[in-house]
Amino acid sequence: MKLFAHIKQDLPAGIVVLFVAIPLCLGIAMASGAPLFSGLIAGIVGGIVVGSISNSSLGVSGPAAGLAVIVLEAIDNFGSFEIFLLSVMVAGLIQLLLGFFKAGIIAHFFPSSVIKGMLSGIGIIIALKQIPHAFGHDEDYPGNLDFSQADGENTLTELIKMWDSISLNSLALALGSLIILVLWQRVFKEKAKFFQLVQGPIVVVLIGIIYQHLCVQFAPGFAINAQHLVNVPVANNMNDFLGQFKLPEFSALSEPRVYVVGLTIAIVASLETLLSVEATDKLDPFKRITSTNRELLAQGTGNLLSGLIGGLPVTQVIVRSSANIQSGGRTKLAGILHGVLLLVSVIVIPTQLNYIPLSVLASILIMVGYNLAKPSLFRKMYRLGLKQFLPFMVTLIGILFTDLLLGIACGLIVAFTILIRNNYLNSHFLHKEEKEELDGSFKISIVLSEEVSFLNKGAILRELNAVPEGSSLVIDIRNCVRIDYDVVEVIANFKQYTAADRQIKVEVLGEQQFDIADY
Q1: Predicted pLDDT at 517
Q2: Where are the domains positioned within the chain?
Q3: What angle do CA 405, 409, 414 make, to 5 degrees?
């Protein structure tokens, strides 16, 4: 019953995530060269199965745009979607092993500045990618976050190209929806409790459906064209519906490529999931911490099942998770409900879903993007100084002009470069004393801290080389719990060779503990 403690908040949030997820599931399936229904299967499994096993309070899983190219190439090389499903199952098994061996700890090594840069970068690119859809230009599939597009265009050129095919009806609906969403968020919610319980995105979607129904019946000239509407596969009966599920081609288990593709999917999906987990936890207003190892187990189970019944690979997705958070979701029930509602909707009301204009959904995602990349966040990161602001901006720009993983990699390189520089400037000394004797020589005492890693090697070497000739040097490592081999080697070499050449008397306190005398 504890799961339903916040159902008043979780149910509306689940409905909003449902509306956001439908075009993303379909668009990613289309971009992957897979059956449209496979994207919906992944969304259902991601919501119900992964959501139930994971302890992420606000994360929502489903098919990810970052895997679309991998999936497209794999299906093309295999020549069979059913063989590809085996790779999805293999990926799930590998993720189960990663979770079992606690590989989720990797998530804790992503710097905060990089995660915040990722969120802002995704926010900006969501908004930029959705603007053409708001104008009724739907050449790029919904959910694409890569700068380069399959049609040869990119995020920026698509903004220019959209002017050649504007749908005024779609644009009017998008602008009207944006006005309602802004007023709902900034004005109406402060006026009455009703506006807090009923989410603005639900209202604009209902308005879009009603508008399309009325226009089709009474004013066909103002109706939105079919290519600008959601396109959920419609089954005539339950047998047709069940026929959309597919089983893997198990006879291909001896094919080595199945395992290569499975390993690739597992690595990329796990990285995207761990990044999303870290980002979602930072957005969580209650600052709850997700078990990353359990998340890998949940994702592995989800991919194992998704591949078994004909679905695309599953990851935790920041777009859906952000929509959940911004819609007031409180617990993982919101994500589970979105999966349940997705399953019920594609069975019961697929025709009604196909009345939803893509431009209305674009307005919802534009608001999601804006809330992820608010100007206040840029001001805050700038005030934190260059060490935080530089990785933040590099990550953001990298995501905007490449893709999610490459942008993250750029940010990590900058963040670790700054870390290495800082470690060079700070050799992890707890204490350093330098006293000049009467004869003009120096007596220098250096105390190292508990943890000394190879990253401190350069700084310690710099300090040792700066010791004047003829000095007395005491290196105290008795407080050290761990010293990397690299640092031990530097101290031993200095004591045995460099110090002798420069007439420096060296005493290492605690050298027996780390066998420095034996080098």
Answers
A1: 56
A2: 2-395, 429-518
A3: 150
Instruction: Round to whole Å and give the CA distance between 93 and 417.
Output: 35
pLDDT in tens, 320-354: 999 999 999 999 999 999 999 999 999 999 999 99
Q: Which residues pair with 434 in a beta bridge?
A: 444
Give me the pLDDT at residue 483, please.
Answer: 86
pLDDT value of residue 426? 66
Our measurement of the distance from residue 262's CA atom to the centroid of its chain's CA atoms, rounded to an integer in Å, reads 20
245: left (phi over 0), alpha (psi -120 to 50) or beta: beta
Task: In whole angstroms, give the CA distance from residue 66 to residue 272.
Answer: 8
Regions of the chain with pLDDT less than 70: 1, 425-432, 436-440, 515-519
Question: DSSP code of 152?
Answer: S
Taking residue 146's Cβ as centre, other Cβ atoms within 10 Å add up to 22
Q: Say which residues have a Cβ less than 8 Å from residue 300's Cβ, sequence separation at least 6.
A: 91, 92, 93, 94, 95, 96, 97, 98, 99
Q: What is the pLDDT of residue 171?
A: 96
Q: Checking phi first, is residue 470 left (phi over 0); if not, alpha (psi -120 to 50) or beta?
A: left
pLDDT at 227: 93
Name the DSSP class of 357.
B
Closest CA to 31 of 188, 155, 105, 140: 140
Compute the CA torsion angle 209, 215, 220, 223 (nearest 10 deg): -40
pLDDT of residue 430: 54
**Contacts with 517 (C-beta within 8 Å, 6 or more apart), sequence order:** 492, 508, 511
- The second-level CATH assignment, the architecture, of 429-518 is 2-Layer Sandwich (3.30)
Amino acid at 167: S
> What is the length of the chain?
519
Tell me the one-letter amino acid at 503. Q
Helix-strand-coil percent breakdown of the chain, rounded to 5? 70, 5, 25
Helices (H), 163-234: 168-183, 189-191, 194-197, 200-218
Residue 479 pLDDT: 86
The distance of Cα 34 from the centroid of its chain, to the nearest Å, equals 23
- The alpha helices in 384-509, defined as continuous H runs, are 386-401, 404-425, 457-465, 485-493, 499-501
- Element of type H or E holding 442: strand 442-448
Give residues with Cβ within 8 angstroms of 80, minimum separation 6.
249, 252
Q: Which segments of 134-278 are extended strands (E)?
A: none
Contact indicator for 337, 10 with CB cutoff of 8 Å: yes
Structure tokens at 443: 């007596």
pTM of the complete model: 0.88
Q: Which residues pair with 505 in a beta bridge?
A: 472
Instruction: Classify 454 as helix, strand or coil.
Output: helix
CA–centroid distance for 118 within its chain = 8
Q: Name the CA dihedral angle for 205, 207, 213, 217, rounded to a multiple of 10 degrees.
A: -160
Cross-strand partners of 352: none
